[in-house]
């Protein structure tokens, strides 16, 4: 195991300061199969070269058809090139571990950086709001100071059902977060917890929470079917004003920006009096005359909107169906972001995604282990894994140019260096947030080309990851 040099810890003796010992925050080791991988590559390369030599020799001295021999040579050259490109994943695969016990000594909890979490959804029928709610609740319940966590939900479908679902989630979170904290749950996604074996042996309080969860689920699903909430579910004037924004002219492809602060850590508390994380619903402006750039456009809108409201230095991106199964996730990422030797050139930390297959043996390869778990370890041993669209924590600064070439945004309020001093729900802040969520805002700017998540590709995650590395 090779530890990176982390924070320095001063070793004191009776005679005073004596030595400075590095306090590693993370470590890595080469996988045991690395030597065998390299040996296999060498043998296989010799075999390929021998085969290509045979093809060339046949071409030069053949008395039969040259066309057939030439096609064989070209096909084997192509296959050899494909094989050679894939060997990078096996040349230096490494496994990392985070030394969380050292993080507690290196960084005090009051000095932990704030984190903005982005969750994207687009269609309440194809992506049921309850799945998005479960994802949000799993990250709101992180083992991290709640006042330093802000969850932004991007609803590209502009659906009343999605907003209503998160209004319900905000109420349920007041019960769910202290329950997770008091019982030290690992599975903090309600749906995953209530269907696990841990639930059957849990505290009696769990039954009451399950009843609340099922009741919330029924109300949300009823709203999805109707397209708007029932009158009996609108409990106060604030909710009524929020849904009044859906006028008869409001459509998923043509509507003004909608930004609703559902929870504010400065004023909202859970049942035990603990602080709640910020929870913000965002539906950017849509207009048929302006391209919306799909998910990359939604993420760039969240980068700007979050900059005006909280502007946390760390950004976590998630898909609507990608819940977190580790409450220590942010602290694990801090083991890298807090390392003074690694941090200056570190753009992001990509966590593996785990997909659940159709059966235990995963005979249809629906878990995508090679793409999301095996290959990233090989890439990590070279220049680092690529960004795969979710479960990735960025330094916000990395989205604004390289470490040596900062690109100043068009207004200082969205700069990563800007400090937000006004309350998250103040009129001035919300007015600016609506402004940067407008569809015309990116006109004649560098968003999508040099700033934020990159446009110009159907797979904005891979393209963004490659551009950040170059």
From TrEMBL:
<protein>
    <submittedName>
        <fullName>Cellulose synthase (UDP-forming)</fullName>
        <ecNumber>2.4.1.12</ecNumber>
    </submittedName>
</protein>
<dbReference type="GO" id="GO:0016760">
    <property type="term" value="F:cellulose synthase (UDP-forming) activity"/>
</dbReference>
<feature type="binding site">
    <location>
        <position position="156"/>
    </location>
    <ligand>
        <name>UDP-alpha-D-glucose</name>
    </ligand>
</feature>
<keyword id="KW-0961">Cell wall biogenesis/degradation</keyword>
<feature type="binding site">
    <location>
        <position position="127"/>
    </location>
    <ligand>
        <name>UDP-alpha-D-glucose</name>
    </ligand>
</feature>
<keyword id="KW-0808">Transferase</keyword>
<keyword id="KW-0472">Membrane</keyword>
<keyword id="KW-0812">Transmembrane</keyword>
<feature type="binding site">
    <location>
        <position position="126"/>
    </location>
    <ligand>
        <name>UDP-alpha-D-glucose</name>
    </ligand>
</feature>
<dbReference type="GO" id="GO:0030244">
    <property type="term" value="P:cellulose biosynthetic process"/>
</dbReference>
<feature type="transmembrane region" description="Helical">
    <location>
        <begin position="39"/>
        <end position="56"/>
    </location>
</feature>
<dbReference type="GO" id="GO:0071555">
    <property type="term" value="P:cell wall organization"/>
</dbReference>
<dbReference type="InterPro" id="IPR005150">
    <property type="entry name" value="Cellulose_synth"/>
</dbReference>
<dbReference type="GO" id="GO:0012505">
    <property type="term" value="C:endomembrane system"/>
</dbReference>
<feature type="transmembrane region" description="Helical">
    <location>
        <begin position="68"/>
        <end position="86"/>
    </location>
</feature>
<dbReference type="InterPro" id="IPR029044">
    <property type="entry name" value="Nucleotide-diphossugar_trans"/>
</dbReference>
<keyword id="KW-0328">Glycosyltransferase</keyword>
<feature type="binding site">
    <location>
        <position position="319"/>
    </location>
    <ligand>
        <name>Mn(2+)</name>
    </ligand>
</feature>
<dbReference type="Pfam" id="PF03552">
    <property type="entry name" value="Cellulose_synt"/>
</dbReference>
<feature type="binding site">
    <location>
        <position position="295"/>
    </location>
    <ligand>
        <name>Mn(2+)</name>
    </ligand>
</feature>
<dbReference type="GO" id="GO:0016020">
    <property type="term" value="C:membrane"/>
</dbReference>
<keyword id="KW-1133">Transmembrane helix</keyword>
């Amino acid at each position: 195991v090779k530890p990176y040099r982390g924070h320095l810890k001063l070793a004191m003796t009776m005679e005073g300061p004596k030595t400075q010992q590095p306090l590693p925050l993370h470590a890595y080791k080469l996988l045991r199969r690395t030597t065998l991988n390299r040996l296999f590559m060498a043998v296989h390369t010799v075999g390929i070269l021998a085969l290509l030599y045979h093809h060339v020799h046949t071409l030069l001295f053949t008395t039969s058809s040259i066309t057939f021999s030439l096609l064989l040579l070209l096909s084997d050259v192509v296959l050899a090139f494909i094989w050679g490109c894939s060997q990078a994943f096996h040349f230096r695969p490494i496994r990392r571990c985070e030394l969380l016990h050292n993080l507690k000594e290196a960084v005090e909890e009051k000095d932990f950086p704030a984190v903005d979490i982005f969750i994207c959804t687009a269609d309440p029928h194809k992506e049921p709001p309850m799945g998005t709610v479960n994802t949000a609740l799993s990250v709101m319940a992180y083992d991290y100071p709640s006042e330093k966590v802000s969850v932004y939900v991007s609803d590209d479908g502009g659906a009343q059902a999605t907003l209503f679902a998160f209004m319900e989630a905000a109420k349920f979170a007041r019960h769910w977060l202290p329950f997770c904290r008091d019982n030290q749950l690992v599975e903090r996604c309600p749906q995953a917890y209530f269907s696990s074996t841990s639930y059957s042996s849990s505290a009696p309080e769990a039954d009451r929470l399950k009843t609340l969860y099922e009741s919330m689920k029924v109300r949300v699903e009823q709203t999805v079917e109707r397209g708007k909430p029932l009158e009996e579910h609108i409990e106060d004037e604030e909710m009524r004003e929020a849904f009044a924004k859906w006028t008869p002219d409001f459509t998923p492809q043509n509507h003004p920006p909608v930004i609703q602060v559902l929870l504010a850590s400065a004023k909202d508390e859970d049942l035990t009096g603990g602080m709640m994380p910020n929870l913000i619903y965002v539906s950017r402006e849509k207009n048929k005359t302006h391209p919306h750039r799909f998910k990359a456009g939604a993420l760039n809108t969240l980068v700007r909107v979050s900059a005006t409201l909280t502007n946390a230095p760390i950004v976590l991106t998630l898909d609507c169906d990608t819940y977190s199964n580790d409450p220590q996730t942010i602290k694990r990422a801090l083991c890298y972001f807090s390392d003074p030797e690694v941090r200056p050139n570190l753009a992001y930390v990509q966590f593996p995604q785990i997909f659940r297959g159709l059966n235990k043996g995963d005979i249809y390869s629906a878990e995508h282990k090679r793409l999301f778990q095996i290959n990233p370890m090989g890439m990590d041993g070279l220049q680092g894994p690529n960004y795969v669209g979710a479960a990735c924590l960025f330094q916000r600064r990395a989205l604004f140019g390289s470490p040596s070439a900062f690109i100043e945004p068009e207004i200082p309020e969205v700069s990563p260096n800007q400090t937000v001093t006004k309350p998250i729900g103040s009129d001035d802040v919300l007015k600016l947030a609506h402004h940067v969520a407008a569809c015309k805002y990116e006109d004649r700017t560098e968003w999508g080309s040099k700033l934020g998540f990159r446009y110009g590709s159907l797979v904005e995650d891979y393209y963004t990851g490659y551009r950040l590395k170059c």
